[in-house]
Amino acid sequence: MIRLLRSGLRPYRWQIVLVLVLVLVQVIANLYLPTLNADIINNGVVTGDTAYILKVGGLMLGVTLIYALASIAAVYFGSKTSMALGRDTRGSLFRRVQSFSQAEVNKFGPPSLITRTTNDVQQVQMVVLMMLNVVLAAPMTAIGGIIMALRLNVPLSAVILVAIPIMGVFIGLVMIRAIPLFMSMQKKIDRITQVTREFLSGVRVIRAFDRTVYEEQRFDVANEDLTTTTLKVGRLFALMFPVLTIILNFSTVAIMWFGGKLIADGSMPIGDLTAFLTYIIQILFSVLMATIMFVMVPRAAVSAQRIMEVLDTEPTIVDPAQPVADVAEAGVVEFRDVEFRYPGAEEPVLSGITFTARPGETTAIVGSTGSGKTTLISLIPRFYEVTGGSVLVDGVDVRALAQQDLWRRIGLVPQKSFLFSGTVADNLRHGDVEAADEQLWHYLEIAQGREFVEEMPERLEAPVAQGGASVSGGQRQRLAIARALAKQAKIQIYDDSFSALDFATDARLRAALRRYTSDATVIIVAQRVGTIMHADQIIVLDDDGTIAGVGTHEQLLETNATYREIVTSQLGVEGVA
Amino acid sequence: MSSRSQPPAAQPGDTPRPPRGPGGPGPGGPGGHALVMPVAKAKDFRGTMRRLGGLLKTERTLLILVVLLAVVSVAFAVVGPKILGHATNILFEGVVSKQIPAGVTKEQAVAGLRARGQDRIADMVSAMTLDPGHGVDFDALARTLFLLIGVYLLSALFAWLQAYIMAGVAQRTIYGLRRQADEKLARLPLKYFDDHPRGDVLSRMTNDIDNISQSLQQSLTQIITSTLTIVGVLIMMLTISWLLALISVLVVPVSVVITMVIAKRSQKQFAAQWETTGDLNGHVEEMFTGHNVVKVFGRQQAAIATFDEQNEELYQASFKAQFISGIIMPVMNFVMNLNYVAIAVVGGLMVATGRISLGDVQAFIQYSRQFTMPITQVASIMNVLQSTAASAERVFELLDEEEEIPDAPECVVFEHTHGHIALENVSFRYVADTPLITDLTLDVEPGETVAIVGPTGAGKTTLVNLLLRFYDVDQGRILVDGVDVRDISRSDLRRLFGMVLQDTWLFSGTIRENIAYGREGASEDEIRAAAQAARVDHFVRALPEGYDTVLDDDAANVSQGERQLLTIARAFLADPDILILDEATSSVDTRTEVLIQEAMAHLMKERTSFVIAHRLSTIRGADIILVMDKGAIIEQGSHEELMAARGFYYGLYASQFEEALDEAS
User: Fold this and answer.
1) The pTM is what?
2) What does CATH list as the number for A2-312?
3) Backbone angles phi, psi at A392, to 5 degrees
């Protein structure tokens, strides 16, 4: 957390200094009041000088006003700084994630990255806010209190000088025990959430497998665990307040006793006693305020750690220092003996993959789940880095191209048709920002999406939600295809993008695509034989991620057992849905 | 009070909630923040609080003890300053006495002062107990201070005991509530889960209960001690001086008004903050989920620009919210200090005129500090209690939901079945006015396969819901081996069935644990065999951790198809008498599907099976086909019968399958 704060707060160091100064003013003003009160007693009350009392009273009012103004200014700059820290941290997180490759995104998972960018940052900025606005005052009040006490009376200050370290040690002891408890409490709360979430999402399965009792036990274990920890925390804190009060009160008694001796022998005026008592209360009060950090710091520390994990993760895939530029855009994709494995995995996902996909041709990839089809095509836009061999686009290793340059050449329709929230037109224009409406209609027509978009009341301006309740799965796929078409890229990749379409639409779409993409390199991952049987080359992936065969439908049907197996299974494929 | 935000009650889905403010058990922090957070109000505050109090009934004895301890602790704490003031008086009187020569009586000294025209001091001195010529009476001082030590020690001891006991009371109560809620979930009919957004139920189970927990832990003790302190301090102040007490009491309405004015303005800003937070979360979620698409379409700069804009907006809103709400503390402090100054000045004047002793003024200053703090605390706790009541209400709503009809008291014990299933005149509807199944009669002989076909969204899972008694039929009955399913305990009934759904559900745990979920006490070999049968063994072993790979929300290495395979392995392991299978549409691809088809065919052999079918081979091979459309069963029969009938099935078949057959052959 310290590391995050150190770098994150650097731009605001002057504001922080300003807050420090303002808090100092507050502390001084607050501590000056008892001194003035002492003056009232010593010089006013004891001598019965009412004019003096009123004069000092006026001064006290002035000091109070200064105190209030300084406090408000401190809150202003404190809020500004801490919220700006939050804003900056969110900004760096977002930019960092944008620079990640698929491997890094997978390492954290999108949901976790989202939480880190939002909730975790919130935790940290709140702690900084509290620190600046509440906690800073504690040590300053303590130090200021000691100074003021020393000014009034050196021997009696010994009481405060003894009391503060005792308080510090006690708080330290509680802290040492409390922080790990808070950490584990947070984990246990998360565990309860997780178990409940799983129960809710799997209620059918749980009941079907008759494992309700088992689930209840799972919950009960988590519940008991959380209760035990919370109880420990609660009991620890039950001790906190009484002990701090005792330290305070005993100091008061000590001051009365030793102060009494000093007063008796005339070495201290009686009004100073009241001032001393007030110092003690102020110091303790500010310390109590600071203990709120107990609750916040452990949580924020965990959050900060999670943030730093992201910020410390270097993208594994970066642009080469000197990218190859001016490569002609033809669209040739070549795999040369490519191997890919997840870090530390026993078996590679893909190995010995060699083929070339040429412009004007359709290359189809088939194989069973887990055979690595999606991984294979993800290597072309360099979402993952190959662990052996190389992938070439237009004769250049993808690792030698600038990523923007590489992506510009690729039109991708992902397996899960991801649309942005916005209108239909917004989404299509992601492919081509400048496309006119007529062009958009044209792309929709090829993607077999014209009809349903025309039926929507707002047509091109119809809203598309990100979760996508407004459009069906098949419609989403067609919009994603139209979006990719709008990009007019030389390399078109369709990752199982026709699965939600019925056969007739699928067939019409493929026919339209063939006409439209006559000079592009088309790479299709598909399940249906019907979708791929007309491809110029079909690459059959085996279970273990190697190529089982390459050829046309007819060739493979004759020579390749794996392919034949797939085709025979296709009778009646995907029918009713 | 720690700041606590109550996010909007309705949670869309499982999206990350707006972060809660710092909470958790802890000592009362600075009052104020909680005053200004937008708070979800309970519909019936009193009723809910009463019911919440009812939860504490089992702890009644301890609670009474807690209150008694609090009374004692507060009483001692409140008396403290008064005794301290007495000590001050001893000192002051000592100082004054010393100045008067021995042998001179107090009256003489006063008269002397008056003679010199020092009426004020004379008044002051005449109000004192003096022992002229002697200095400070240290014996008396020591006695007073020992009394004080005793009082403070007892006060702290009782305060500690009270908090210690209260922690136990609160946590036991919360444990019970959480358990009650969890057990309730187990008894709720499936309809509840189908009708309520998951995020909402989850939020009731976690955030709301946490909220109550924190309230019980801190607010309850605080409200007891704060109220007692206010009363005690007020009494003590009145015994000292009604005038000074009046000045202190004036603080109350002033603070309330100030707080309300500021709180009103800052609530607006907090609302804006939550709103912009929502927007930003939405954008972040979208961009992170569509990471690759954003990249390939070169939208990164645009994404960053939008983010920056929203981020800046959020910054502005949250800065304003924090600033305005942050003002409350300093302003309250200002008011407190004004009060302090007023007491110092007026008190000083009163001492000077002898109407009050110095010790009393000193005591009063301490009291006035003790007075304002609990007032701010009570104010903020009232707000916290509002949010607690809202949370409690949501939890109670859950607890009050109608439960599943309990199992019949005398259930027929079922361990295995032949798999003869009969539906007799079954009618069913989810919603009152839309009948789905009307008068359905069906007889499935042991070992037969029933295919359920129809377009997406035709309600093909309805029958599954009825068979497994996730829902009960409205009319008619379902018989397993001639026994009404309502006469079989749900757990016995469900154990007869094995199920693979499209909606793959795996829990966070290792792959091994997830497969083993199919049957309690399965051996490692059985698990591996099941994985091999589901053709998932290769994939699992390619993972870095193999069977020990932990599946959780973040496990992006496991695709939807692979998850499906794992659930199939789980069903293999369960080895049920009756099979319910939801044929995969797209997530499991053809080649794997072939292997699974074979394995399933093997599994279905000798077993009665219900298949939500998409594949022609399955449909044609089925003994009975149920054709569904728009939630209702519209046709029933064998493939040949249905084709001959030339109805909906015929049309479906002609349009969807013939083309596929033509293309593929």
Assistant:
1) 0.68
2) 1.20.1560.10
3) -115, 140
